[in-house]
Amino acid sequence: MELKEFFENFAEVMDLDDANSLSENTEFKELEEWSSLSALGLMAMIDEQYGVSLTAADIRGSKTIGDIIEKIKSHSNE
Amino acid sequence: MKTVIENVTIKAVNSWLPKTRIEMTSFNSLYGVEEVNSIIKATGVERIRVADNDMTSSDMCVKAAEALFEQEQFDCSQIDGLVFVSQTTDWLLPATSISIQDRLGLSKDTVCIDIHYGCSGYIYGIFQAAAWIACGACKNVLVLAGDTTSRMINPNDKSLRMVFGDCGTATIVSKGEGKMGFQINSDGSGSDRLIVPAGGFRTPVSESTSILEWDADKNGRTQNDLFMDGMAIFNFAITKVHKQVNALIEDMAWNKEDVGFYGLHQANEFMVNYVRKKLKIEAELAPVNVKNYGNTGPATLPLLLSDLCSEPHQYNLQKSILTGFGVGLSWGSIATDLSETKFYSPINK
Lengths: 78, 349
What we know:
The complex is a heterodimer.
Chain A: H1 3-14, H2 36-50, H3 56-60, H4 65-76
Helix pairs in contact in A: 1-2
Chain B: E1 2-16, E2 20-23, H1 28-31, H2 33-43, E3 47-50, H3 57-72, E4 81-85, H4 96-103, E5 111-115, H5 121-134, E6 140-147, H6 158-161, E7 167-186, E8 194-195, E9 213-214, E10 220-221, E11 227-228, H7 230-251, E12 261-264, H8 269-279, H9 300-308, E13 320-326, E14 330-336, E15 342-343
Parallel strand pairs in B: 1-15, 4-5, 4-6, 12-13
Antiparallel strand pairs in B: 1-7, 2-3, 6-7, 7-14, 8-11, 9-10, 13-14
Helix pairs in contact in B: 7-8
């Protein structure tokens, strides 16, 4: 997975102007733009782009973007 | 569960909408313009209909049925089966369908049943009707599907209040030339993901169930109100529904290119479009009509048909799919020919 591309996809879901502000350490739920709607957008984007259907528990159990990336990787290996 | 039932047909469908419209923009002062706009953008719901306080789901369905008998010039004494699909029944007991037998003046030879399902409920209703016809018990079954979901929602819960509307519908299923393929699946492990926790016998309504609590998205509700875990339902919908529909099409030995209409449960625009993408089909084949009505639970499929197929339309209904999914968790699909079915425009549209 291209990290830069993932941050860009993430920024698009969240309607953020600049993907450069994102990193693996970003605590995405602390972002002002985060809402339950962006959670659905995130699940849809990951399903579409990475072929992985994250569960509600995956999202709830993730604090940083890096955690999300780990979840995607672990599902990809299933 | 999957099966094919022969010699049944969906004869006619209509719907009855309450007259009161609630514009989503009327929530601007309550929830804030920005929040309201972002919810409308995601859900596609611009307005909903809500039933008057003295009107129940069965009242709306009875109005739809009375109109349908008249529109079809159908002698209601020919009805020998009645299915009422609703989660907002008139009483705890008796079954509401029994009272509808009397209110519609149906024969006392009518077999009546309530089916307590939501968004997959229409599929259950048609399946029940088809099964009664197939086993020789009935010739004409009236399937009523409707809910007053708006009344189960806490006013402080914007996530649900801006999505769910009320509607009642009526469908006549009869012995005929048609053939229906069914596939229904259940996953009760998700029963707490879309639920009204209190009010049944496990947790009766009490002072402690009536405490208003706020979630992280600033939606407020009590245990007596409808709760939906949007993420869990979304994950469910995008992983299960298309697989069932594809399996059904295969079981029917249909070519997917020949399917001319996909009636997908109208949860909200985002969900319908996403399920449609998972099905890899053109947008034209899977219409969305949530804009004016919202999610009307078990009524969305007959409302969609009555709304879009009553006028001259572009759909080839010879090979049609109907699919419902939600509370349970439960998902069900029907493959059948709807080209001979009569559809009547929603009353009060």
